[in-house]
Amino acid sequence: MRGFTIAALAATAIGSGAALADDHEVKIGVLLGFTGPIESLTPAMAAGAEMAMKEVTDSAMLLGGKALVPVRADSTCVDSAAASAAAERLVTAEGVAAIMGADCSGVTTAVLQNVAVPNGIVMISPSATSPALSAIEDGGLFFRTAPSDARQGAIAAEILREKGVEEIALTYTNNDYGKGLAEAIAQNFEALGGTVTINTPHEDGKADYSAEVGSLAAAGGDVLVVAGYLDQGGRGIVQGAIDTGAFDVFYLPDGMVGDSLPAAIGSALDGSYGAAPGSTGENATTFEGLAVSAGFEAGPYAGESYDAAALIALAMQKAGSTKASDFAAAVLDVANAPGEPIGPGELKRALEIIGAGGEVDYQGATNVELIGPGESAGSYRQIEIRDGAIATVGYR
Amino acid sequence: MADILNALAVFGNFVAVPGIAYGSQLALGALGITLIYAVLRFANFAHGDTMAFGTMAAILGTWGLQAAGIGLGPLPTALLALPLGIAATAGLVLLTDRYIYRYHRARRSTPVTFVILSIGVMFVLNGLVRFVIGPDDQRFADGERFIIRARDFEALTGLEEGLTIRTTQLLTLVVAVAVVAALFWFLRRTRTGKAMRAFSDNEDLALLSGVDPDRVVRVTWLIAAALATVAGVLYGLDKSFKPFTYFQLLLPMFAAAIVGGIGHPVGAIAGGFVIAFSELGLTYAYKRVAGYLLPEPWAPEGLMQLLGTDYKFAISFIILVVVLLVRPTGLFRGQVI
């Protein structure tokens, strides 16, 4: 009897599921870490992605008036097993056509290998930056609107060499992000003729970094590159190096750029410099305005999330299909030139142009330009610490 | 000659000065552990979190004083809040003794029972501190940060290498010396101190001579609370306060107490410095020091680093294991106060 009830319930559930998943609706997974270390960023990221989907739905232009329905799932940012299970649910139970996510590099890799590739689902991550994802076996299904840290490494090396730096000491936070970024910086800097005197990890969450600073000081160098976190070990290293007079100038990658660092260290940080992802110009401003009128604050990676969702919709329109095997190849087409440039809030126009057989060059909130295996070329904001505040020097 | 001075300056800047400060902090912590062991005869695993609790109370007091605009000029305000921290911690340890340890003392439970109890207390304190002040870093040092900065030292002496001495480092040393002197005077000269030593040496004999055991236990807890709070506040001023790092300090502090000979106050101090200098000395890269001392052609290419800095914690663990294997009583033949 009990077995029968469950079977009946299951049948009803499947029945209602099928009724919802009619031809009119296309479900898109929004797989982000709604709990975990970046839970403060993900609400705005999800809101960004959902804003793009709503824009597409409201336009009634996608493949003859289809609606995009977001389905949220929790990637946790750190737990690969939980993220894979959540993605599995999106694919098998919800039947999503694509996944906007995941967010952190580790879980993104796991979901891609365990769920997206075996099931043939397109994934566009707004925020995974590990260089390892560039070379991953993805069957042409994985894209990201965030730049790889390999790109950040190249930019860091360029900036350092332009400043005439010959020797750097390098320390990184001991995780996938820090290690990947440090390797990228070291390789590029050496390729440009510089010398890396030491490349050593530090652990976050310690009270005392004098031993780490001691070995960095022993190795020496013109500039200390700290690929860490500004509220964690990175700050401890900078503070220790300044206190002991080991280094005067620091290079600050994205994890170290924030107002709390100069506030904590004070004037001794003046003259240090760095770069963090950041786009400029009309599109970024327009997106911020759109976000405010949609009722959320455009935080870090919210623009990238909007762009990821928009690219999914435009690629579907281009391929004339919601099947991953059809539209995956179209993502690069719509993201890059040639074609009509498309900013944020212009998705209706883009869908019209594509529907009429034209070409678009999607720019979106973050001036998207997909390179290599389908990742953002990335625009970086070069900064310098002046009078205890972060000053923008330029973009590259 | 200048080369030797430069080498000394580098060594002082990165090993000697931080080592002396860290060693003093460990020594004060290990003293508390060793006193509890000598009198109450168990290894108090809650000592690290007692330190965290005392420091937390002192930090809250510091914030109150800062808000009221009271300060000590060039010295950190936390020194004024120290008595408050000690009082709060004393109340806490007396409460835990009254409601947790006393029952088992009366029943003469085995030492391992006490160790397990102290682990329980440790977890409760762990949670309590996080509830009150949160799990994050807290910086509460104010006043003048440096006694001498690296750049000023270079200008002053004309050397190529700078030497930094921070206020908190000197303060740690001064306070530690004062506290240790007071403790030894107390143990050797006062009636209560002598009663504690007698109690530690032979409990039954001490009881026969009319020593009040409850009083000895109470005074021991009070001293341990004061030592833990002073050690914790000095460590927090010098570095930073974070509940988890105080919990982690348990390993080097126990290693210090055991290396010196547990139950032996002089041993705890010696042990603190042995552990601190091993941690810093074995993970320091001697490239620059050797560069000054050796003639030009012999200058080292590599970093001359024995162990990566990641192994800092492993060092106290290795020392602990080696001492327990080779000389279980420690440097100073422990077990008596």
UniProtKB/TrEMBL annotation, chain A:
Keywords: Amino-acid transport, Signal, Transport. Belongs to the leucine-binding protein family. Residues 25-335 form the Leucine-binding protein domain. CDD domains: PBP1_ABC_ligand_binding-like. Pfam families: Peripla_BP_6. Residues 1-21 form the signal peptide. It comes from Paralimibaculum aggregatum. This is ABC transporter substrate-binding protein. Coiled coil: none annotated.
Automatic annotation (TrEMBL), chain B:
The keyword Mitochondrion does not apply. Its main location: membrane. The chain crosses the membrane at residues 20-40, 52-72, 78-100, 112-133, 170-187, 219-237, 306-326. The keyword Transport applies. It is found in: Cell membrane. It comes from Paralimibaculum aggregatum. This is Branched-chain amino acid ABC transporter permease. Belongs to the binding-protein-dependent transport system permease family. LivHM subfamily.
